[in-house]
Write a structure and sequence with these properties.
Layout: E1 2-7, E2 12-21, E3 24-34, H1 41-59, E4 63-67, E5 69-70, H2 75-94, E6 99-102, H3 104-111, H4 119-129, H5 139-153, E7 166-167, E8 188-190, E9 201-202, H6 205-208, E10 219-226, E11 231-236, H7 239-249, H8 256-265, H9 268-276, H10 280-283, H11 291-307, H12 332-342, H13 347-354, H14 364-374
Parallel strand pairs: 1-4, 4-6, 5-7, 9-11
Antiparallel strand pairs: 1-2, 2-3, 8-10, 10-11
Length: 379
């Protein structure tokens, strides 16, 4: 299937051609139609329509997709885009193409997995999904390719009439295209993709233990981190675990890998209790965490928990925090036994010397003196 995606704009109308074969998606071509701001509106719209017809004639797409308009309260800024969109719809209709229309949120949801994605994230995912060796430029072309991908990943792209060219409301989440099985909401992410491509998620050992057998469906709460050289995605079995991950990476010197190591060693409730108990020795049991790092983690996390009183893990009961159990104070009989053994007496001799004494109401010195007399030695 060959799909033409269009990102309409009066000054810049982006277009992109993708082809899907046996689950593989590739970019065939992309570009941008530019019009001069000094030209009459009718001339600019004619330019857009003419060039789009040329793209259709050259690449022969099976279907087309175009981005609809969402502008909130700023109606004035959307009018030029609406004009360009109308010209594109007319051109596509004259070419007898079926047209799918998608909101910006739907497109971002389909390509990145979150309706809150920025242009950089969209371009990165378009590059990845279409197997390009570079980010498509300009942004209008990348958005057009993303629109085409949205059509491909939609279960049933329903063509919309041109009269519905302007959307004033957010789309119903039940109508969002779902390239990810059971995916709903901007912060939920599922792992299996219909078109045969997916993302690598970093998960903790705790989350790994909850995963079904291979081939099963799973819903994870995700967090995406964007760096200059990469975008990383992390998955969590619960919202509490994701929140704890956020708290961990906010600590100076703690990155995502170390945060996952902590969450692999302790459950969220155990970690919360450990922090509130100021158990730095327990924290130091995490691979890669030394004494100083453990102390810093506890200090900063406890301060964060104190400010965020609404965050209490479901498996951590307030007032029942697992505090370290103090060791029982050694009795006088134990001290006397240790002293005799250190003096070279055998265990049998020690037990005979201390037999009959329970150590109650006796000082260690008195107990030791009595035992030495039994052994034939002056105290």
């Amino acid at each position: 299937m060959v799909i033409l995606g269009i990102d309409p704009g009066l000054a810049h109308t982006g277009w992109g051609i993708i082809e899907e074969r046996r689950g593989e998606v590739r970019c065939r071509a992309y570009g941008c139609i530019e019009t001069s701001a000094g030209s009459p509106l009718a001339v600019r719209l004619s330019h857009i329509a003419r060039d789009l017809k040329g793209v259709v004639e050259r690449y022969r797409p099976d279907t087309a997709a175009i981005e609809s308009i969402y502008f909130g309260a700023n109606v004035r800024s959307a009018i030029p885009t609406a004009h360009a969109r109308g010209a594109a719809l007319v051109a596509l209709s004259e070419c007898a193409l079926e047209i799918g229309e998608y909101t910006p949120m739907q497109i971002k949801q389909a390509v990145v997995g979150t309706g809150a994605a920025d242009k950089r994230q969209v371009a990165y995912m378009v590059r990845t999904l279409t197997q390009l060796d570079h980010d498509p430029h300009p942004d209008h072309a990348a958005d057009a390719l993303a629109c085409a991908i949205c059509t491909l990943t939609s279960a049933a792209p329903a063509p919309s009439p041109a009269a519905s060219s302007i959307n004033r409301e957010e789309p119903d989440t039940d109508d969002l295209p779902a390239p990810w099985n059971a995916c709903r909401g901007h912060d939920e992410f599922c792992c299996r993709r219909r078109v045969g491509r997916g993302f690598e998620l970093g998960i903790s050992g705790s989350t790994a233990a909850t995963l079904p057998t291979p081939g099963g469906e799973v819903r994870l709460y995700t967090r995406m981190q964007v760096r200059e050289d990469a975008m990383m995605l992390f998955g969590f079995a619960s919202k509490d675990e994701r929140t704890m991950f956020d708290r961990l990476v906010s600590v100076s010197g703690v990155g995502p890998r170390l945060a996952l190591a902590v969450l692999s060693t302790y459950t969220v409730g155990q970690l919360y209790s450990l922090v509130m108990a100021e158990d730095d020795k327990g924290m130091a049991k995490v691979p890669g965490v030394g004494k100083k790092t453990a102390q810093r983690l506890i200090l900063e996390l406890k301060s964060t928990f104190a400010k965020d009183k609404g965050f209490v893990p479901v498996d951590a009961i307030p007032g029942q925090v697992a505090m370290p159990v103090p060791a029982a104070a050694p009795s006088a009989i134990d001290d006397a036994r240790a002293a005799l053994l250190s003096m070279g007496f055998s265990p049998q001799e020690t037990e005979v010397a201390l037999s009959g004494y329970d150590g109650q109401d006796m000082r260690v010195e008195d107990l030791l003196g009595a035992a030495l007399k039994r052994l034939g030695m002056d105290a």
